[in-house]
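Fill in residues.
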Protein backbone atom coordinates (compact mmCIF):
# COMPACT_ATOMS: atom_id res chain seq x y z
CA UNK A 1 0.00 0.00 0.00
CA UNK A 2 1.15 3.49 -0.74
CA UNK A 3 0.66 6.60 1.34
CA UNK A 4 -2.75 7.21 -0.24
CA UNK A 5 -4.08 3.87 1.06
CA UNK A 6 -7.50 3.63 2.67
CA UNK A 7 -7.90 5.01 6.16
CA UNK A 8 -8.73 1.53 7.53
CA UNK A 9 -10.90 -1.55 7.08
CA UNK A 10 -13.82 0.29 8.62
CA UNK A 11 -13.65 2.89 5.84
CA UNK A 12 -13.62 0.15 3.19
CA UNK A 13 -16.60 -1.55 4.86
CA UNK A 14 -18.60 1.67 5.07
CA UNK A 15 -17.81 2.47 1.45
CA UNK A 16 -18.89 -1.02 0.37
CA UNK A 17 -22.10 -0.60 2.39
CA UNK A 18 -22.82 2.72 0.67
CA UNK A 19 -22.45 1.07 -2.73
CA UNK A 20 -24.55 -1.90 -1.63
CA UNK A 21 -27.33 0.58 -0.82
CA UNK A 22 -27.00 2.46 -4.13
CA UNK A 23 -30.28 1.11 -5.51
CA UNK A 24 -32.09 2.74 -2.59
CA UNK A 25 -31.25 6.12 -4.14
CA UNK A 26 -33.61 6.79 -7.05
CA UNK A 27 -32.61 9.29 -9.69
CA UNK A 28 -34.09 12.20 -7.77
CA UNK A 29 -31.81 11.35 -4.82
CA UNK A 30 -28.60 11.01 -6.88
CA UNK A 31 -27.07 14.13 -5.31
CA UNK A 32 -27.68 12.64 -1.86
CA UNK A 33 -25.78 9.50 -2.84
CA UNK A 34 -22.88 11.53 -4.25
CA UNK A 35 -22.80 13.52 -0.99
CA UNK A 36 -22.55 10.26 0.96
CA UNK A 37 -19.56 9.22 -1.15
CA UNK A 38 -18.03 12.71 -0.83
CA UNK A 39 -18.28 12.37 2.96
CA UNK A 40 -16.39 9.09 2.87
CA UNK A 41 -13.80 10.55 0.50
CA UNK A 42 -13.27 13.47 2.91
CA UNK A 43 -11.89 10.96 5.43
CA UNK A 44 -9.05 9.94 3.09
CA UNK A 45 -5.64 11.57 2.86
CA UNK A 46 -5.82 14.40 0.35
CA UNK A 47 -3.51 12.68 -2.15
CA UNK A 48 -5.26 9.30 -2.04
CA UNK A 49 -6.15 7.90 -5.47
CA UNK A 50 -9.19 6.27 -3.86
CA UNK A 51 -10.88 9.65 -3.49
CA UNK A 52 -11.16 10.52 -7.17
CA UNK A 53 -11.94 6.88 -7.97
CA UNK A 54 -14.91 6.73 -5.60
CA UNK A 55 -16.13 10.14 -6.71
CA UNK A 56 -15.84 9.11 -10.37
CA UNK A 57 -17.85 5.97 -9.68
CA UNK A 58 -20.55 8.03 -7.97
CA UNK A 59 -20.82 10.54 -10.81
CA UNK A 60 -20.74 7.75 -13.39
CA UNK A 61 -23.36 5.65 -11.61
CA UNK A 62 -25.70 8.63 -11.39
CA UNK A 63 -25.54 9.36 -15.11
CA UNK A 64 -22.72 11.90 -15.39
CA UNK A 65 -19.99 10.27 -17.45
CA UNK A 66 -18.64 13.70 -18.37
CA UNK A 67 -17.86 14.48 -14.73
CA UNK A 68 -16.48 10.98 -14.11
CA UNK A 69 -13.85 10.97 -16.89
CA UNK A 70 -11.42 13.49 -15.34
CA UNK A 71 -11.80 11.86 -11.92
CA UNK A 72 -10.98 8.37 -13.25
CA UNK A 73 -7.94 9.83 -14.99
CA UNK A 74 -6.87 11.56 -11.79
CA UNK A 75 -7.22 8.34 -9.76
CA UNK A 76 -5.09 6.40 -12.23
CA UNK A 77 -2.50 9.20 -12.43
CA UNK A 78 -2.26 9.29 -8.63
CA UNK A 79 -1.34 5.61 -8.57
CA UNK A 80 -4.59 3.73 -8.02
CA UNK A 81 -2.85 0.62 -9.36
CA UNK A 82 -0.35 0.80 -6.50
CA UNK A 83 -3.20 0.79 -3.97
CA UNK A 84 -5.39 -1.78 -5.72
CA UNK A 85 -4.77 -3.49 -9.04
CA UNK A 86 -8.42 -4.57 -9.03
CA UNK A 87 -9.76 -1.03 -8.55
CA UNK A 88 -7.36 0.29 -11.18
CA UNK A 89 -8.71 -2.27 -13.63
CA UNK A 90 -12.25 -1.26 -12.70
CA UNK A 91 -11.28 2.37 -13.27
CA UNK A 92 -9.99 1.57 -16.77
CA UNK A 93 -13.16 -0.37 -17.63
CA UNK A 94 -15.42 2.36 -16.29
CA UNK A 95 -13.34 5.13 -17.85
CA UNK A 96 -13.55 3.42 -21.24
CA UNK A 97 -17.32 3.18 -20.89
CA UNK A 98 -17.53 6.84 -19.91
CA UNK A 99 -15.30 7.83 -22.81
CA UNK A 100 -17.63 5.94 -25.13
CA UNK A 101 -20.63 7.69 -23.59
CA UNK A 102 -19.00 11.07 -24.15
CA UNK A 103 -18.12 10.40 -27.79
CA UNK A 104 -14.54 9.13 -27.50
CA UNK A 105 -14.80 5.37 -28.10
CA UNK A 106 -11.37 5.27 -29.75
CA UNK A 107 -9.80 6.30 -26.42
CA UNK A 108 -11.79 3.53 -24.74
CA UNK A 109 -10.36 0.98 -27.17
CA UNK A 110 -6.81 2.20 -26.51
CA UNK A 111 -7.41 1.92 -22.78
CA UNK A 112 -8.89 -1.59 -22.85
CA UNK A 113 -6.91 -3.42 -25.53
CA UNK A 114 -3.89 -3.83 -23.20
CA UNK A 115 -6.24 -5.33 -20.59
CA UNK A 116 -6.78 -8.32 -22.90
CA UNK A 117 -3.13 -9.25 -22.43
CA UNK A 118 -2.86 -8.53 -18.70
CA UNK A 119 -3.36 -10.88 -15.79
CA UNK A 120 -6.76 -12.54 -15.80
CA UNK A 121 -9.41 -11.98 -13.11
CA UNK A 122 -13.17 -11.82 -12.67
CA UNK A 123 -13.29 -8.56 -14.65
CA UNK A 124 -12.16 -10.18 -17.92
CA UNK A 125 -15.70 -10.41 -19.32
CA UNK A 126 -16.44 -6.79 -18.37
CA UNK A 127 -13.29 -5.73 -20.24
CA UNK A 128 -14.48 -7.57 -23.32
CA UNK A 129 -18.05 -6.24 -23.06
CA UNK A 130 -16.95 -2.59 -22.75
CA UNK A 131 -14.35 -3.02 -25.47
CA UNK A 132 -17.01 -4.56 -27.74
CA UNK A 133 -19.26 -1.53 -27.22
CA UNK A 134 -16.41 0.86 -28.04
CA UNK A 135 -15.56 -1.16 -31.16
CA UNK A 136 -19.21 -1.15 -32.26
CA UNK A 137 -19.31 2.64 -31.97
CA UNK A 138 -16.30 2.74 -34.27
CA UNK A 139 -17.99 0.54 -36.90
CA UNK A 140 -15.96 -2.54 -35.91
CA UNK A 141 -18.96 -4.67 -34.92
CA UNK A 142 -17.47 -8.00 -36.06
CA UNK A 143 -14.51 -7.51 -33.70
CA UNK A 144 -16.87 -6.57 -30.90
CA UNK A 145 -19.13 -9.57 -31.50
CA UNK A 146 -16.07 -11.81 -31.58
CA UNK A 147 -15.02 -10.54 -28.15
CA UNK A 148 -18.48 -11.01 -26.68
CA UNK A 149 -18.91 -14.53 -28.11
CA UNK A 150 -15.44 -15.44 -26.90
CA UNK A 151 -16.33 -14.22 -23.41
CA UNK A 152 -19.67 -16.03 -23.44
CA UNK A 153 -18.41 -19.39 -24.75
CA UNK A 154 -16.86 -20.70 -21.51
CA UNK A 155 -20.11 -20.03 -19.63
CA UNK A 156 -22.30 -22.10 -21.94
CA UNK A 157 -23.42 -25.56 -20.82
CA UNK A 158 -22.70 -26.87 -24.33
CA UNK A 159 -21.16 -25.61 -27.58
CA UNK A 160 -18.19 -23.97 -25.92
CA UNK A 161 -15.75 -25.08 -28.61
CA UNK A 162 -18.10 -24.17 -31.47
CA UNK A 163 -18.81 -20.69 -30.11
CA UNK A 164 -15.13 -20.05 -29.44
CA UNK A 165 -14.35 -21.06 -33.03
CA UNK A 166 -17.15 -18.89 -34.41
CA UNK A 167 -15.83 -15.97 -32.39
CA UNK A 168 -12.36 -16.48 -33.85
CA UNK A 169 -13.70 -16.83 -37.39
CA UNK A 170 -15.53 -13.50 -37.18
CA UNK A 171 -12.18 -11.70 -37.21
CA UNK A 172 -10.04 -14.29 -39.03
CA UNK A 173 -12.42 -15.83 -41.61
CA UNK A 174 -9.71 -17.69 -43.53
CA UNK A 175 -8.15 -19.30 -40.46
Amino acid sequence: MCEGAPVNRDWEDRTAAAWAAFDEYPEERAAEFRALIDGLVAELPEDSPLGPFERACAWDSTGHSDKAVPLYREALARGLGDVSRYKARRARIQLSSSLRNTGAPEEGVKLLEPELEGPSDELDDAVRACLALCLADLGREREGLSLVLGALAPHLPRYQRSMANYARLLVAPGA
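Residues 149 and 167 are 5 Å apart (CA to CA).
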